[in-house]
Amino acid sequence: MLQPAKILILTYGSRGDVEPFIALACGLTARGHTVTISSAEKYGDWVKSFGLTFEPLSNDTIDLMTTPDGIAALEGASGFLKRIAAGARLAKKSGGLNDGLNRDAWRAAQAVQPDLIVFHPKVMAAPHIAEALNVPAVMGLLQPMIVPTSEFPVAGMPSLPIPGYNKLGYSLVKLSYSAFRKSVNVLRTEILKLPGIRRRNEVLFPRGALPIKTLHAISSWVIPRPKDWPDEAIMSGYWNLKSDETYEPPASLQSFLESGPSPVYIGFGSMTVEDPKALQEVLVEALRKANVRGVLSTGWAGFDALESDDILSISDVPHEWLFPKMAAVVHHGGMGTTAQGFRAGVPCVLCPFFGDQPYWAQKSVALGVGAPSVPRKALTADKLASSIHLAVNDAVLKKNAHDLALHLQSEDGVRIAVAEIETSLAKVVER
């Protein structure tokens, strides 16, 4: 029988980059392992509320996203040239911050002395720390963006019928990581006392590390596992947090849900916007033009609080509890929110801002569970109202959403991921 192990999980980004790893940590803990999550300090209380140990990383890089440049870079309505200029300024600022993040990750690893490291690819220090400690590393992926395949393009790139195009996208992703080679080599040579890396592929897959397994927290019902993936690339299924059976909603929300037909949820999670008031007015108008009631999540967008007969503002309410009670869900297309929307069994409308969000928007339509998406840069009350009306009333969308949810609810992605991690641990014991 496998002995309990000390496992360090390193993840960074928005709440959607952290929540699946909390679910994984809970699954590992249930198997007797001692698990520490290391992420941005702002998530400490949330992580600890699950009885998990927490090691903080700096908030600085995340805080950049709430600056004017961060908002401009994220929001599709900012205009292409403005977003490019903002992105360039952010890149200059992020270099030093990434060095600090690497040092924070090493400090966390020293505190834990793990037997295995699970990491989000945003924490590029992780595989190098694993090499220095001579322990296995497992990459947790929330999007299909790292392991190349000829079957579909990298998340975020359009589908084009060009020979070799699909694999080219994955090469471009690896090329983008080469920008961090200098920072990684500072960590390796000055702190970890390892030789520097020379190839861009070694930013995430250093040659001196043990073989790195890639666990994709995605369902094969949403993206079938490519036939040309290597054996160490796993499609486990979504890593979903167990529902809190003791959760009680705010009285205002419970009353609103009971006072009329099922409403439509609108929320953009960790997306920030330049003019929250203007966007909120568009969303409210869209709900009223679609003749539906609405639940509007304030999120990071900073919307004003609203409470009327047909619209209610909310803050943090578990999506797993809320979404099945909606007539449809409208959101930005973050991977975590998308997964919860699919599991809820109700149609969706995605309003992607940037990154992989257009990919999930396209996927929702291709699966037959999403009405036409309305990208943030093209968002108007009329367009959104039209898609909401279709999502709420189309019988085919409703049936498809229901059927997909049944498939997803029958999966246990955490169980599969835990088994794969334990296999990696067992191989180390056998050495």
Automatic annotation (TrEMBL):
Domain Erythromycin biosynthesis protein CIII-like C-terminal residue range list: 311-407
Family annotation (Pfam families): EryCIII-like_C, Glyco_transf_28
CDD domains named among the record's database cross-references: GT1_Gtf-like
Top-level taxon of origin: Bacteria
Domain Glycosyltransferase family 28 N-terminal: 7-136
Coiled-coil region: none
Protein name as annotated: Sterol 3beta-glucosyltransferase
Organism this protein belongs to: Pseudovibrio ascidiaceicola
Lineage: Bacteria, Pseudomonadati, Pseudomonadota, Alphaproteobacteria, Hyphomicrobiales
